[in-house]
Amino acid sequence: MTVPKILIAFYSRNGSTEALAKAIAEGAEIEGADVRLRRAREVVPAEVMAKAPGWVEKATEMNAKYPMPTEEDAEWADAIIFGTPTRFGAVTSELKAYIDSLGGLWFQGKLNGKVGSVFGSTSSTHGGNESTLLSLYNPMAHLGLIIVPLGYADPVLFEAGTPYGATHVSVQDTVAPNAKQLEVARFQGRRVASVARRLTVGTEAFFN
Questions:
Q1: 71-90 confidence digits (pLDDT tens)
Q2: Least confident of 8-12, 23-27, 66-70, 168-172
Q3: pLDDT tens-place string over residues 97-127
Q4: Which residues form the Flavodoxin-like domain (predicted)?
Q5: CA-to-CA distance for 56 and 63, rounded, in angstroms?
Q6: Residues 9, 80: contact at Cβ < 8 Å?
Q7: What is the 3-state secondary structure (H, E, C) of 97-117?
Q8: b or e along 111-137 (b: 16 or more beta carbons within 10 Å of the residue's beta carbon)?
Q9: Dihedral through CA 101, CA 73, CA 128, CA 156, nearest 10?
Q10: pTM, full prediction
Q11: 51, 66, 184, 191: which has the fewest Cβ within 10 Å?
């Protein structure tokens, strides 16, 4: 059986997006995927990070757990799942910097036909989860990724998440993702891995 290779490239400052990323990885692994979890790195100076309580400490902790995403990771993967908190209703500069670094692969056409999907979190109820996920569809289209949304393909989507990807609202970082939100995330991992496997098998059959 073909083993789909999944890259989950995310940024997380306080742990909400990280929790969703881990649940997506669990779902993909249930589907038999080989998963790489990668955390994008900070792009602001240390003195800026120091002004936000806990930022330096949490970044150090997470960076010890997750390697930074690389160009090689994207080339290796059959599917790339991007995860980000919202920043003023849009993607974080940290994750966007990684996406922007993929220009060399884009120029060579090496990302064409890979699966792409997104997930995210925000601090407030109307903080921009959906606008952020939809904004990531634009660079994914430019990279040549085949965008895989969730739709309402699982009953849990009627209770949590969005049709565009798994989401969470942390209420100023006081609430962790609940069981339904994590279930949506696991479904996203399973769905992306399943689609990636079908596309990979189809490609192998076409060229062999």
A1: 999 999 999 999 999 999 89
A2: 168-172
A3: 999 999 999 999 999 999 999 999 998 888 8
A4: 6-192
A5: 10
A6: yes
A7: HHHHCCHHHHHHCCCCCCEEE
A8: beebbbbbbbbbbeeebbbbbbbbbbb
A9: 160
A10: 0.94
A11: 51
Q: Are 26 and 98 in contact (CB under 8 A)?
A: no
Q: In this structure, which CATH number among 3.40.50.360, 1.10.10.60, 3.40.390.30, 1.10.287.130 belongs to the domain 5-207?
A: 3.40.50.360
Residue of 110, 49, 101 whose CA lies nearest to 76: 110
Query: 159 is written with which tokens?
Result: 């209770």
For residue 125, CA distances in Å to 21, 32, 45 come to: 20, 34, 29
Rounded to whole angstroms, what are the CA distances from 65 to 39, 58, 115, 135, 206? Answer: 9, 11, 25, 28, 39
d(C-alpha 175, C-alpha 15), whole Å: 10
Helix (H, G, I), strand (E, B) or coil at 91: strand
- Distances from the Cα of 189 to the Cαs of 23, 32, 64, 171, in angstroms? 8, 10, 23, 25
